[in-house]
Design a protein that fits this description.
The strands form four sheets. Strands 1, 2, 3, 4, 5, 6, 7, 13, 14, 18, 19, 20 and 21 form a 13-stranded mixed β-sheet that branches. Strands 9-12-11 form a three-stranded mixed β-sheet, covered by helices on one side. Strands 16-15-17 form a three-stranded mixed β-sheet. It is globular, with a radius of gyration of 22 Å. The chain is mainly beta. The chain is built from six helices and 21 strands. Strand 19 and strand 20 form a beta hairpin.
Length: 349
């Protein structure tokens, strides 16, 4: 893939020339981020006014929208030879992340996390659902006074193995990824410019015990709920206990234990790949949550991986995408097809 024309539309002006540009999007982040270094086109006053904090911004790659959001900060610089500015900001989901949750009663009953997210979206961010199965209703969801809308929703998403992912149009998707895939792959000797992998067991345990209670009822079935998920690959005794603060039952505790085990095991296999251009072999911009085949004998990886984070960079060195991938089970998806990465990369049964 060749050079991308990056366009930043702000304050009625369109900019296509920068000293440096970077945009990042992640599966586990509800807002995308950007940072640009630009010259003072039209003079420092014009640039400062155009990129003033709070200004609405739309960023596109060759016409494909990559971020809709706002400027968070404008940092002018001056030296004996140059006058530049660093402009940084986030997509519209930043309001959902930063602002305190507002709700008339502070409680929802027999609703899903999608219902909760939409009820708390007072900012016009937009909530999307990107999962293949129906969401389970939660008997009671309570909002802690003073917590942000993001934190209130993320807490219940986490218990179901879901995440909040910032989208190109500024909205937020409730997802765990894995529903779509990128064309081609990231293959050593073809389009893999530079890469590194991390096989890290520091957060992996032999068993995951989830404990919780029901808000009403009595006896062990309500007050002493416990479910265990075991990772057969970890031979040492390394238990971890997870205490669920919100309402739970046997089924939800079992799901949470399995999700915790799978996420920890999947997260043990990560890699970062640098590739030329911003798009896959089919012309689609790299996107968090999509599957991609990764093959690198040097990294001992040969399987489908899940795109967890992408950073798009453009400077004098051209257009480069830094694609962070993880074993799909880290987000509750099935093992990647074509898994031939070897026993050392196993995530257990």
């Amino acid at each position: 893939m060749g050079e991308e024309i990056v366009t930043v539309a702000v304050g009625g002006r369109r900019y296509t020339s920068f000293e440096r540009f970077e945009l990042s999007a992640a599966l586990n982040e509800a807002a995308r981020t950007f940072e640009i270094e630009c010259a003072h086109e039209g003079g420092p006053g014009v640039t400062a006014w155009t990129f003033s904090a709070g200004a609405q911004v739309t960023i596109a790659f060759n016409g494909t929208t990559a971020l809709v959001g706002y400027v968070d900060s404008y940092k002018p610089r001056v030296s004996a030879t140059a006058r530049t500015a660093i402009v940084a900001g986030r997509s519209k989901g930043a309001d959902f992340i930063d602002s305190s949750a507002e709700h008339d009663t502070g409680e929802l009953r027999d609703k899903t996390v999608e219902d909760l997210a939409k009820a708390l979206d007072k900012y016009g961010v937009g909530i999307k659902l990107d999962v293949s199965e129906a969401l389970k209703k939660i008997r009671v969801m309570r909002i802690t006074p003073g917590e942000t809308a993001f934190r209130a929703v993320e807490r219940y998403c986490r218990s179901q193995g879901l995440t909040l992912c910032g989208q190109a149009d500024g909205s937020i998707a409730i997802t765990k990824g894995g529903r779509k895939r990128h064309a081609g792959g990231l293959i050593e000797g073809q389009n893999l410019l530079e890469a590194e992998a991390d096989h890290n067991w520091s957060n992996r345990h032999s068993e995951y015990r989830v404990r919780g209670q029901r808000p009403d009822g009595h006896g062990a079935s309500a007050m002493e709920i416990e479910r265990i998920a075991r990772d057969s690959v970890v031979k040492r005794h390394r238990p971890v206990i997870v205490v669920v603060e919100e309402d739970t039952d046997d089924e939800r505790a079992e799901t949470r234990a399995k999700n915790r085990k799978d996420r920890a095991a999947g997260a043990a296999l990560r890699a970062t790949v640098h590739t030329q251009g911003f798009r896959d072999q089919g012309g689609t911009v790299w996107e968090p949550g999509r599957l991609v085949y990764v093959e690198s004998p040097s990294l001992s990886i040969q399987q489908d991986m899940l795109v967890e984070k992408v950073s798009f960079r453009q400077d004098d060195g051209g257009s480069i995408a830094e694609v962070g991938v993880v074993d799909p089970r880290a987000y509750g998806n099935k093992a990647g097809k074509g898994n031939k990465s070897g026993k050392a990369w196993s995530t257990g049964d």
